[in-house]
Amino acid sequence: MTSPNVVPFSITPKQEQILQGAMRVFLSCGYAGTSMDRVATEASVSKQTIYSHFVNKEGLFKALLEWMTLSRFREVYDGSRLCGEPAILLRQIAKIYSFRVADQNYLCLIRLIIGESDRFPELAKLFTTTVIQQGQQLLSQYFEAHPELGIDDPEAVAQIFFGSLVSYMLVQHILHGKDVMPMDYDRLVTSLIHLVLAQSSR
Q1: Distance in angstroms (rounded) separating the CA atoms of residues 131 and 194
Q2: Is the dihedral of CA 156, 107, 80, 92 positive or negative?
Q3: Which of 25, 125, 178, 193 has CA 20 to 30 A from 107's CA?
Q4: How far is Cα 194 from Cα 172, in angstroms, rounded to an integer?
Q5: Which is it for the CA torsion 169, 170, 175, 180, positive or negative?
Q6: Is the pTM of this model over 0.90?
Q7: How far is Cα 117 from Cα 61, in angstroms, rounded to an integer?
């Protein structure tokens, strides 16, 4: 599996200081309304310092997305392969996803990405590659390595699993589904796991 270029987890204190300031500005002003001058003021650094680390505003936003995303999902993505008993592993992945995504700052960031997706499709693609694609590829590899599960199309089943988690987050937390059509997360995950593992009993 080829991973996209990402900000290393061992970022410097100065880079983290800049990203923390940038996060506050992007979330309060939106992408278009964010200026490097404002980020510099918020992060208490010079504008030249930001440019020396992140080149331009787009590079800064991409770095912020990668940093916020991959630092949350490192428990899943650090290893080259997933391992463990299927039911336990799938529930663990779902738990990590829910815990890391259901954070107000991260949800605001996703709203920002969706709102800017027409003008800046690369930002939306970056979220897809850093969150959904990596997880889907690792899970697909896991299914392929476990033929006893009887999964005929590992890639499609992996996409169904991760797609359901993403859909839950979007509908319940961003589209206010929890007020209109609430669904317990554990109930959804349990049903997903049963659907996946049912293939092995055919």
Answers
A1: 23
A2: negative
A3: 193
A4: 22
A5: negative
A6: no
A7: 13
Backbone dihedral angles phi then psi of residue 120, each to the nearest 5 degrees: -130, 70
Per-residue pLDDT of 82-112, as tens digits, reads 888 999 999 998 988 888 777 788 888 888 8
- Per residue in 139-167, is it b (16+ CB within 10 Å) or e — as a string? bbbbbeebeebebeebeebbbebbebbbe
3-state class (DSSP) for residue 75 = helix
**Tens digit of pLDDT for each residue in 32-72?**
899 999 999 999 999 999 999 999 998 898 888 878 877 77
Kindly tell me the burial class for residue 198, based on how many C-beta atoms sit within 10 Å of its own C-beta (0-12, 13-18, 19 or more).
Answer: exposed
Q: How many residues does the chain have?
A: 202
Integer Cα distance of 92 and 88 in angstroms = 6
pLDDT tens digits for range 105-132: 888 888 888 888 887 787 788 778 777 7
Question: What's the CATH number of domain 13-201, 1.25.40.10, 1.10.530.10, 3.40.50.12280, 1.10.357.10?
Answer: 1.10.357.10
Question: For residue 190, what are its two tokens?
Answer: 């349990």
Question: Using an 8 Å Cβ cutoff, are 124 and 114 in contact?
Answer: yes
Domain boundaries, the chain: 13-201
